[in-house]
């Protein structure tokens, strides 16, 4: 893994500190993050002069994969120390492994500052994700049967047993319940 810190020669901004869930990141120790989880991020910037139309880009990068984590937009970044607070999600489909957590600060002319930190993405022990729900009919009349298929992906580290699925239409007082005996890791 290569550590990169880039600052445009004309840049008037520096990334002073980055923290995820109140833990400061450093350039050596990988921070462990679970896929399928939300995290709070604090970015401390030293802005030497006001910058207009700025965005902060967050992404995960490795030799094989690249995932965007979101952008934060600003009309104006005022001069002085600025603490930017936001959140992001590591999606359930992100592959496990080592990544560079990239933070880029850009304006309309290009990248003003960039910093990367090592992170390790791991799977949760239990992480079921509803891919989609298919209803046989979108019109249900009183007395008719409700038929549905639920497509679930197991992104976790463990096989899941006796998974109970319940679908409710509260306005019509209709519900359906079923149990899936087993969903193996990586199985849909």
TrEMBL record:
Q: What is this protein called?
A: CARDB domain-containing protein
What organism is listed for this UniProt entry?
Answer: marine sediment metagenome
